[in-house]
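Table S2 (text version). Query chain:
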Amino acid sequence: MRELMTKLLRLTIWCGSFVVIVFAAAMMGTGLLSLRASDDVDTARPLPVAVQTVVIQDRYVAARRFPGRIEAAQVSDVSFQVGGEVSDVSVRIGDRVTAGQVLARLDPERLANRQREIQAARDEAAASLARAEATIRRIEGLLEEGYATEQSLDDITAERDGLRARARQLDQALATARTDLQDAALRAPFDGVVVQRYVDSGVTVNAGQPIIQINASGKLDALIGIPASFATRMRIGDRHQLQAGDLSADGELTGISDAIDTSTQTVTARFEITEDPGFVPGVLVRLTLEEERLATGVWVPATALNESYRGLWSVYVVVENDDDEQIIARKDVEIIHIGDSRVFVTGTLEEGDRVVAAAPFRFVPGQRVTIVDQPVSAPGAS
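Corresponding structure-token output:
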């Protein structure tokens, strides 16, 4: 009895599930039929499109961009005028400095000792010179009385003249030693920013060896390589827009190099930036120049292009059929020049053709459309 009841329960559950499955399938079928009917209605309805009327041109203006780099108008490697051991470097990379500010120092003890040595030699030469002049006076007196000879006077006079020359030489050496001692403090030649630090404390350096590199504050230059064909059309004093990221500024052309860079086949143009928007020396900058070229074609939006067969391109145009309905047709084009948001093309387009401006991928030739004034977003576009 118990086994019979169990079999009946299982049969009831199985039958109930089957009924549910059949019911769900029926509902899904109804939904699919409804969606298909809706799709048929949407397909039959003309799609809205925005168009651009074709205007054939015999030339176009191409914008070309040339890269360059921002540099400080004045860059200096600052060095000591005398050699010695560096006792202190008081600035770091990125520090702003003012003209006359101490950047580094040499150990002054050796220079001070040198100055004292020269001063002692100068004092000794002065004493010897004083004795020689006193001797000359005595010999001159004895010469008048006949107790001295002309030769003795000539000898002491020559010795005095040599001591005078020695004193002048030591005076010059003493002035140099004083200057060297002052040069033990390395000072900034102008206002600027420290961009390089070549040595640290404890290093022995030679005279003229670079210690600190400073970029001058204020004026900046842009150095940009441009083809010689463009350079011949540019004039000193011309102003051009320069772009570095989101920053832009006017640059005045101040010079063009005569030498051609063999690796890039360009000449270097220097632009002075009069109002700095925040450029930093070393940053990349772009110069845009326009060039007129002869070619028959038309500008179309980049969004109008549709990849065609064998690497070719095409655009969709709106034409009228025999029933005066507006429908889609396709025309092949060839790209001549690519701009920022538009493309100059040539091909089978004719004057007055109405090119679909956007979302060409959702159309097929013969599809009915209606023209609207504003561009229409493609399905799924934001």
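Notes on Table S2: The radius of gyration is 46 Å. The CA atoms of residues 207 and 249 lie 41 Å apart.
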